[in-house]
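Hey, I'm writing a tutorial for new members on how sequence and structure tokens pair up, and I'd like a real worked example in the thread rather than a made-up one. If someone can provide the structure for the chain below, I'll link this post from the tutorial.
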Amino acid sequence: MEAKLKLAELLCTRLCHDLTGPIGAIANGAEFLSEEGFDLQGQAVELINSSAAQAVSRLQFYRKAYGRINDDGEANLAEQKKITNDFFLGSKVTLDWPDTHTDASGVSVSYKMGRILLNMIIIASATLLRGGALAIRITSDNNIKEIRVTANGTTLKWDKEIEEVLAGHVELIALAPKTVQAYLTKSLAEELTVNLSWQLNDSSFELVARQRVQVELSEG
């Protein structure tokens, strides 16, 4: 129970940190509007609106990535693509996620696997120090479902602390808000018997999740 509590506390700390920026900007905009003689009301309202939209998009994304809403069923990949697009609006990260990799008739993943995908996106995007593009590809072949998230940019940095956590070399007691999300990703992968691998070169970072699908044999 203590371990689960520590994990929840660290995730809450990280979530609050990521929401501080846009919510603080909303407060600043409201403070500007309350000042007597302030003549830039249009800019203040724009700041409030854009910051509120950013806060909402982050909450929606983290709700799907961190929250345990439903353990059963298939993930809505089209919805996940939308909340990911919203998550990166106004940032230097662009999304390359073709509709063919969201169409349930062609590719599908479980709800839990969908959570792994969103957490992989967080990890991969963190390597893009000066922005870049994230490519999402989801395939199924020979009873293997594969999620591939590739970050492409001019300046990439792979955090060795995150790598150690994903490799399973760090215990929960040694985690910090910076590394707890990687621990959650690793835990979700272990729960589904998903293999995580990664590779970094000069212009790209690739994070891959592979899951062997159980095939039910028909009788007769």
